[in-house]
């Protein structure tokens, strides 16, 4: 299967030259490569195998090694990086009870909206709609995920996310499921409505102190006693329990950037102070694997290669 070519190119990419036999014979070198993971971020390569060209984008060293071993048919026999394929314990459980089986959750941010394009504060407003460009982004996501089976799709009912989900879910048999908890910044006390629809620069001029806090210290940002990021962490934990309680092993979730930040952070045990540690582009895809105890392991963060190429994800 062109293994020699693959070995040579992969060995060169990892700086190991002809020492790939040591890797093929065991996983001792994986730890060494993990320690150098930062050197390989963003690395890409073309590998000729039996006359074909394999194009890969290395998002993380773990993702690269998973792909390598899959091509070498060792997926079911090799345990990677301390159990990356069948991990036993990760972070705090997000489920209130034992799950019947492991689950994979694929998170997608909605496509470009009208207020995204205008740099306006959106919040839970339903006046911001999917643009033509946003619809094209959603279609790219649909094609990129076309070969992946999903048991269910959960989405925010806000128009920009709902429209994205409808495009993504075309041709699937199961009905879309809408959760209010996936809405962005639901304010039951109506104390944030006055900042929605404002352009970012306008908000900065009208509310300079609040704007600076929002940008630099979001966990302490509040409007009339409402702390949206703190509230978001509470509702997100409840959202995870609701999603994980559903039957099935593979779910698609379509929602908003702030919700995605909270979903990823809470899954990894990160508090609201880490809100800005995560970013997800319009049409960006994140993937989390959960074991039976409801503990999460981040598989992919903000994948966007499908936005610029005809890439199709296989898992």
Automatic annotation (TrEMBL):
SUPFAM superfamilies: Phosphoglycerate mutase-like. One of its GO terms (molecular function) is phosphatase activity. It holds the Pfam family His_Phos_1. It comes from the Eukaryota. Gene3D superfamilies: Phosphoglycerate mutase-like (3.40.50.1240). Substrate binds at residues 109-116, 160. Belongs to the phosphoglycerate mutase family. This is 2-carboxy-D-arabinitol-1-phosphatase. It comes from Chenopodium quinoa (Quinoa).
